[in-house]
UniProtKB/TrEMBL annotation:
It comes from Parabacteroides faecalis. SUPFAM superfamilies: Tryptophan synthase beta subunit-like PLP-dependent enzymes. Pathway: Amino-acid biosynthesis; L-tryptophan biosynthesis; L-tryptophan from chorismate: step 5/5. Belongs to the TrpB family. It is an enzyme of class 4 (lyase). Residues 57-379 form the Tryptophan synthase beta chain-like PALP domain. PROSITE patterns: TRP_SYNTHASE_BETA (PS00168). The modification N6-(pyridoxal phosphate)lysine is found at residue 90. This is Tryptophan synthase beta chain. GO terms for molecular function: tryptophan synthase activity. Its EC number is 4.2.1.20. The beta subunit is responsible for the synthesis of L-tryptophan from indole and L-serine.
Amino acid sequence: METYQVNQNGYYGEFGGAYVPEILHRCVEELRINYRKVIDDPSFQQEFHQLLKDYVGRPSPLYLAKRLSELYGCKIYLKREDLNHTGAHKINNAIGQILLAKRMGKSRIIAETGAGQHGVATATVCALMNLECVVYMGKTDVERQHANVQKMEMLGARVVPVTSGNMTLKDATNEAIRDWCCHPADTYYVIGSTVGPHPYPDMVARLQSVISQEIKKQLLEQEGRDYPDYLMACVGGGSNAAGTIYHYLDDLRVKIVLAEAGGLGITSGKSAATIHLGKKGVIHGSQTLVMQNEDGQIEEPYSISAGLDYPGIGPMHANLAKTRRAQVFAINDDEALDAAFLLTRLEGIIPALESAHALGALPKMKFKPNDVVVLTVSGRGDKDMETYIKYKNQYSL
Ligand SMILES: Cc1ncc(COP(=O)(O)O)c(C=O)c1O
């Protein structure tokens, strides 16, 4: 049977692999050899799931959004990752990877962050487990997500503002990789999405797969069948989407809809719609779709949403798009803002700007009345209040 899961060499179709500098080869190999052994170990699973339950507050609810459903003429369930401790899905992965780091004997944790949610999640788990934590964050993001910077600092992390490139997620990732190259022996790099060299994309997808594991159980209870007709999620690097679709990847009854950031529009020159605009290339250790110019130089992405502002995409998602297993929409800033205000007024839920891109794909779909749709609300909007307030007058309903 055709599978959309990773193969033994770390590829999803033609995408994936591990393209790393010589100095990191041993670290990445060590991880590749150990990650399945560790995370499949029953004692790891027990510790991981206990923390997901008692510390994160899982399972996250699967909420039937009645007024939203009425509007779009189908049954829309929201998977409420916004209700997790620290406000997004990122904590699932941070707990898993930091437990793994401890078992591999690493004493220092580094991370990159865009919207700050992965940085906050990593700093939180490092506080919990008493580990040193350094978070790299582009200076532009430090400014637009400063509430999350204050949280990371209060949690005891050192936040390093990065001033190269356009000072966003790509640049923070470059800096984190540089740090890792200088401290390969004691440092564990917690990547926040399904990106980077193999085994990161597969490892992050597995750690986030708790989302679809819960969806199966919750749908069975609420709908009498364990699969939906549609799964919808936003994609930055792809981790909340990977978690949402993981257990349904090879179940062709389930249609997958992904929303990437169109920015000001895919032809505007200010966009982060990598699947629409990218060509095959290598970024941060993985062969995937990359926004690049004719010389192979990476083009600076743009999105109103810091968490989607990335010129690459997870290799799993590049393959889903290439094989047409997933339908992919580019949702522009204004469409995401509209969708955020609409959800807030209809359901009393203020979503993260990233999640609002998934909601922004709803008006582009044609549903049948009996369709069951599960859309992941990857995070809450607290960190985006300044942006929302700025646009409020334009978007008053
Ligand atoms: C709330 C939220 N959703 C989505 C994303 C995008 O990341 P990913 O595609 O890995 O889920 C981010 C990234 O920072 C985020 O903070």
